[in-house]
Fold:
Amino acid sequence: MSASAVLGIVGSAIILLSLFEMMRRHRLREKYALIWAVVAIFVMFVAAFPLVLQAVAQALGIQVPANLLFFGASILIMVLTLQHSSELGRLEERTRTLAEEIALLRLAIERPGGLARSSSTTQKPEETPPGEDE
Amino acid sequence: MRGDGSDLRVLIIVPAWNEQDSIAATVTEIRTCLTTADLLVVDDGSTDRTFERATEAGATVCSLPYNLGVGGAMRTGYRHALREGYDVAVQIDADGQHDPRFLPLLLEQLGHADVVIGARFADRDDPYKVRGPRRWAMILLAAVLSRVAKARLTDVTSGFRVSNRRAISVFAAHYPAEYLGDTVESLVIACRAGCTVTQVPVTMRPRAAGTASQSPWRATLYLFRAVVALLLALVRDWPAQFDDGVTKADAHGRASLPVDPETPTDAPSKEVRR
Structure:
């Protein structure tokens, strides 16, 4: 077994183990873990059977099989990053909505005749330190 | 809901971000000009004394926990207008550029359109001058938006506008937070949702405080971003995929979008209403 095969197998085994450990500690959600697990298993497969990579590279007309690997890896990372950006956009939209709703709720509560206990609630809401509710 | 506008419930929304030097004057002026309208200042996460100044001047102030941009502030305002059942929502900038004395003219046009823009450049003798790339951007935006809206629009980036119930229910659900989204894209959205848009010529005043960016480099950047924002707005799917931002009560008004949100309360409503 060549050095690169050992490296690939050990590397992906480490990734799989850390995925498992992170999920066990609730540090990673399944929906994100799945794609990384697939990647790790794929890397392991390629490392164990380098001839497959060579055959595919030859079929595609790529001289150096490693180039195919690099190409595939960069595309994959790009796609994953893109997916994270899109996820980030959704989260931003959600926090925006929450912020708007909080502002409206605060308005409803603090307005004269609102739900506040007393009518003397005209001080700036930011003066309450975060995490300290009424 | 036609006519002189005296029997309409009007909410004036003023988005304000760090406008402590001009907000009080703006609020006072609006309150003197329009005694019957309700006034809501949306404090967009200001770090200065905007909240206090606006409250002292007699406005109802709604504070966002952090800065969301004009789009976020305005959507907050439109949601408030929708839930409180206002007939008309008015957007006026806090910096004193918009003269509330033009408002009756804008309100008059609501009989003919769902959104009325108070627009510069409509008259040839408009004292408000813009040059260079910024001007090109404005001309381009105006030309394209005029086609989309099938009406002559000369100033689509104007933050001075009036919306009726139909437009309010659209904007309460979809009001982009991105750059230029609050003006250009929101108009495209309104048109796509079947709202009609028109404009009324107004003269705008120089900003009461602060300075508008006028360097050529900034202006070019503005042109570029305007083109990008415009293209995106035109090709975008609607409603946006990102729009989780609609609560059940609002979705109720939205589900029947081009209809009358006259009775948006047939849902068992838990929201605060008075």
User: Anything to note?
Assistant: Confidence is low (pLDDT under 50) at residues 118-134 of chain A. The two ends of chain A are 67 Å apart (CA to CA).
